[in-house]
Amino acid sequence: MTTSPTSEKKELVLKGVAASPGIAIGTAYLFVKETPRADERALASDEEVAVEDERLDRAVLKSVKELTKILAFAQQKVGDAKARILEAQIMVLEDPVLLTSMHKRIKKERKNAEYIVSEEIGKYARLMLAAHDEYMHERAHDVEDLRNRIVRNLQQEKLTSKFDGSMIVIAHTLTPADTMVLSRNHVLGYATDMGGVTSHAALFSRSLKIPAIVGLGDATRSLANGDQLIIDGYGGTLIVHPTTERLAEFEAKRQRFLAFEANLSQLRDLPAETADGHRIELSANIELSEELEYVVVQGSQGVGLYRTESLLIGRDDFPSEDEQYEEYKRVVDRIYPHRVIMRTFDVGGDKLAPETAEEANPFLGWRGIRVSLDRPDLFLSQLRAMLRASSRKNLAIMFPMVSSLPELKKAKAFLRQAKAELKAKKIKFDDHLEVGVMIEVPAAALNAGALAAEVDFLSIGSNDLIQYLMAVDRGNSLVARLYDEFDPAVLATIKHVINAGQKQKAWVGICGEMGGHPLAAPLLLGMGIDELSVVPVVLPEIKKIVRTLRFSDMQKVARDVLTLSTGDEVRAYLRKVIKKACPDIPLDDTVRG
Ligand code: PEP
Ligand code: MG
Prior knowledge:
Elements: E1 12-15, E2 17-20, E3 23-31, H1 46-78, H2 80-94, H3 96-109, H4 113-130, H5 134-154, E4 166-171, H6 176-182, E5 186-192, H7 200-208, E6 212-214, E7 228-232, E8 237-240, H8 244-264, E9 281-286, H9 292-297, E10 302-307, H10 321-335, E11 339-343, H11 369-374, H12 376-388, E12 395-399, H13 405-424, E13 435-439, H14 442-446, H15 448-452, E14 457-460, H16 462-470, H17 488-503, E15 507-510, H18 520-527, E16 531-534, H19 539-548, H20 551-561, H21 567-581
Parallel strand pairs: 3-4, 4-5, 5-6, 9-10, 9-16, 10-11, 11-12, 12-13, 13-14, 14-15, 15-16
Antiparallel strand pairs: 1-8, 2-6, 3-7, 7-8
Helix pairs in contact: 1-2, 1-3, 1-5, 3-4, 4-5, 6-7, 10-12, 12-13, 18-20
């Protein structure tokens, strides 16, 4: 029987999204941030208008000062790139156009400063919230934070963010500034109702190496200050009022993980080579060039997937060829001498689109290479930008969402055209750069041999491949439990792609999330995969797994697994393999295995 340390309180397990790895055990500090009220008040005289003007100037100045202090602190703690979000907030505040327009409105509408600030800045937040895009939603919260800061300063209220001792911070939502200010205390972990893994609170926590969970729904409503908590930042679970047994179990896990992580840094410069000398390539997936430093620190051998469409975030036009060239050059220069595989824009589906097309089934619609082939100007300018950045010979290009051979041939024809255009202008590039195709559509998987004959490599996009194979929307929580990377159909498909590709002398990698799953790595290795491209945070762990295993053993594991008939059987088998070969690997039974 399990017992509870506070016997009247029942243990509660809440599921969120793992945002920063690690385990934290401690008590809750509920960070409650009331949205300051900005009631409308009419001004009766010119004197009152002057008073409001002055109040506004003072509040803005105070907000700039506060943010500048937080910025200096952030630069020290997380580095310039991430602190830039705060710099952007300061720039908005110092923008004379915004300030002038607020003063004008106070004068013209004869309304109090709180109301005008709320209206004027709220306008931007509303616009951002209207966009169907997680990134824009996160930025809208940053803008709302800015508005609340000024209004709070107008009312001269102080937000308390100080606590004694070590605590786990629980909040409905956390802005970048909140995360930084709170981190002056001894924060053991963060858990928030809102936010995705791309939220800046998540980003900061990863940089600060503080375990975090986001997207807990309405967890804060059921929590109180001082509640005993466990954050499992690997599995994305928050355990409230843990039993004594649970506490002991997680304390042991925490100690093991700490020891495990301390050892990982020794792996940084070592290759991803099995104990019996079989070497694969272990590279990282990136979305933004800001992630490059982290990728290097994590000991990556290169970038296996650069999602270039992230350049389109926050803008409504396409970046020019020169702008793209600058960005691509920055990435290849930083990663040199290792290779960077750049994927041409994968827009559409659940991602950004160049124009708003109303589609009943966007995932089956105009996305990836289909968009590029229909918009030759955009496609050619991206290809030219990539080619221009390739002169150090460490850049490869791959095409997303290809479903048939004619499509691949058309994409290659565009690449030839882009090369010819550059040659005509005598611009240098790597004429022999590697070209690859992503295998994300079942038709492409079945036809992998024919596609491979046309390219240098195949990269399995398991995120989409599984969604299309299993007919399960990858972002729909209603059917999330049907999305199974270990389903025998998925495994047979992957094995087929590896064999078919290699038979045509193309190397085969995987860049979907599955490649970074600690249970999938031994299996993929045994199936003969040439490259794993994973999210940077799991890279050392996967390297450790690869270096611990024997290739010959994993080939047998792969053969055995391919005879099993359900995903559960596969997982149970692989869990045993990992537990035996690498007992210190943090496997969470509920989520990661
Ligand atoms: C994939 O589908 O596995 C993939 C890597 O592409 P994305 O997740 O960007 O669709
Ligand atoms: Mg994909």
